[in-house]
Amino acid sequence: MMKNILYLVALSLVLISLSSCKLFKSPTVTKIQDVKVISITPDKSTIKISFIVSNPNCYKLKLDQLNVELLNKDRYKVGNAYLQNVVEIPKKSAMCLDFNVELETRPVVKMVSSIDQKVQFFITGKGHGKVMGIGKKFKFDEPYELDLKEQLKSIIPKFSTNGQSLFKITKTTVEKIGIGETELQVHFIILNPYGLTFNFKGFPAEIYISDKYAGTGNLKNQLKFNENIYSQDGVMVFKLNNLKTILGAVKGAVKGEIRYSVKGRVLIDALGMEINQPYSYQDALPVNILEMLLN
To answer: I want to staple 249 with a disulfide (CB 3.0 to 4.6 A). Which of 9, 95, 290, 294 is the partner?
Structure first.
């Protein structure tokens, strides 16, 4: 009997205390603090979402559930994340929580605006918290715009992903030999694993043979990509000064291989942006180029 009385007294005190704080109030997501792109690969992209969860109560709150979803502008789910561990938020205070959300890259690329390179989506979630053993559910739904301009500027002109080159040389050929000038063609393939839409419109560059300047070149034709074009073949055409080429080739021949390097700037139109970034590559010349020039 005494135990029951003590229990009722304790319960009454709890209820009185909660009443003094206008009963148990639900926790709320008061602000989307930040959204950052952590990584982008051809298959998966990771976005870190940081938001503020507030505890308006006079007692600490135990947040034991929180499921976060990312919806596109048509409100279809494109990614989600879950609270891994119980979080305690002190009374009358707030805490910033971070969630890493994994997304499929190609659907995200389709969401990018060609006007301002932003992705519009909704951050939604459902959670559950407890105060003094009493639980309540809560939910939130917030629109957000993520600016991908800098990420796209970084990805597109680098022609690489996960340490692997997306610009691959297939062959180097000597096409025409004149009295003072020779035409060299570099054949290559460009991969588009992200499904990006862009126009590779130019690549003005200088070519060096065995580290000696030999001439200039550019793309033979522009290359246009969209989400359905995974790869394309292209050609760069260089005009080489014969004398400078011979000098560089002789130096390389002594070493057993005639290497060349190309240094220039890639010119790309992508999603409303004009990208102008440095890019370089290197390979070997045909072994018979010296003989061809001397003859």
So the answer is: 290
| 203, part of any domain | yes
Checking if the pLDDT of 14 tops 60, the result is: no
DSSP of the chain? -HHHHHHHHHHHHHHHHHHHTTSPPPPEEEEEEEEEEEEE-SSEEEEEEEEEEEE-SSS-EEEEEEEEEEEETT--EEEEEE--S-EEE-TTEEEEEEEEEEEEHHHHHHHB-TTT-EEEEEEEEEEEEEETTEEEEEEEEEEEEEE-HHHHHHHGGGTEETTEESEEEEEEEEEEE-SSEEEEEEEEEEE-TT---EEEEE--EEEEETTEEEEEEEESS-EEE-TT--EEEEEEEEEEEHHHHHHHHHHHHHHT--EEEEEEEEEEEETTEEEEEEEEEEEE--TTHHHHHH-
The values of phi and psi at residue 55, to 5°, are -110, 105
Structural domain boundaries enclosing 140: 25-147
pLDDT of residue 19: 46
Shared-domain flag, residues 166 and 265: yes
Closest CA to 122 of 81, 82, 79, 75: 75
Using alpha carbons, select from 181, 205, 216 the residue that is nearest to residue 264. Answer: 205
Name the residue with higher pLDDT: 108 or 161: 108
CB 128 within 8 A of CB 137: yes
Q: Which of 147, 164, 189 is the last residue of a domain?
A: 147
The model carries a pTM of 0.71
What is the spatial distance between Cα 81 and Cα 102, in angstroms, rounded to a whole number? 8
What does the alpha-carbon distance between residue 212 and residue 247 come to, in Å, rounded to a whole number? 8
